[in-house]
Amino acid sequence: MAKAKYKRVLLKLSGEAFKGNATYGIDAATVNHVASQIKKALLMKVQIAIVVGGGNIWRGVQAERDGVDRATADYAGMLATLINSLVLQDALEHLDVDTRTQSALAIQQVAEPFIRRRTIRHLEKGRVVILACGTGNPYMTSDTAAALRAVEIEADMLLMSKNNVDGVYSADPKFDPDAKKYDRLTYLDALNQRLGIMDSTALSLCLENKVPIIVFNLDAENSLERVIKGEPLGTLITGERQ
Questions:
Q1: Which of 142, 150, 154, 214 lies 20 to 30 angstroms, CA to CA, from 5?
Q2: How far apart are CA 129 and CA 135, in angstroms?
């Protein structure tokens, strides 16, 4: 069994990835594929916490444009992340992976409350912990939640899984065939160039707390396992240029 380079990671999953090839909702085969990747990585004895977005169910920004109050739209988005988290938990448990879902909102019937020390204890016992409902506050994205939780649990690396994108590009490769892929960036490069990796609050949190980020495509074969082994996959974002 390959050895993990990192002891503890936080994996940020895009909600968009959960819909597979559909335009909306959750594709069971896609979620099962994600769960199988997580199980393979877990066999390397790495501790894994997960934050899932909710864009496959609810887009808060679009709802606000349609006239929904911003705070209300954001709370609805948090509930969408909880739905995704519960579905992922079920898929992992079908693979005999011991999993806990913790919520930043109080929903005790379906999820534990997020308590930092309890989260760390679960991880130390080899359980996967899925952190739902963002930070529990409106005006904060799930990317910001991922950065914050990575800092709180003292993760060695924040792994940003993007939907059908294998790293950070100078422009959107779906629309610009001349877009350049970056193998490595600094936090300040990413902030100054507004590359759309994550929002500026999330990036600033990682910068201030020196949490390195790897942006990669989870759809690539064994990509999560390869990243955790330390293979040069995707784009690495740190405070150093070299």
A1: 142
A2: 15
Contact indicator for 184, 236 with CB cutoff of 8 Å: yes
| Phi–psi pair at 69, nearest 5 degrees | -55, 135
Instruction: Decide if 129 contacts 115 (C-beta within 8 A).
Output: no
User: Does residue 3 sit within a domain?
Assistant: no
Rounded Cα gap, residues 54 and 237, in angstroms: 24
Which residues lie closer than 8 Å to 14 by C-beta, 6 or more apart? 53, 55, 161, 162, 163
Domain that holds residue 142: 8-238
Collect the ranges in the chain with pLDDT lower than 70: 1, 241-242
Q: What are the φ/ψ torsions at residue 41 (nearest 5 degrees)?
A: -65, -40
Q: What total number of domains does the chain contain?
A: 1
Question: Quick check: 35 and 91 in contact, CB under 8 A?
Answer: yes
CATH label of the domain that carries residue 228: 3.40.1160.10
Q: What is the pLDDT of residues 68-126, one digit of tens each?
A: 999 999 999 999 999 999 999 999 999 999 999 999 999 999 999 999 999 999 999 99
Is 205 contained in some domain?
yes
Q: How far apart are CA 159 and CA 125, in angstroms?
A: 21
Would residue 12 count as lying in a domain? Answer: yes
Contact by Cβ (8 Å): 215, 146: no
Report if residue 170 sits inside a domain.
yes
This prediction has a pTM of 0.93
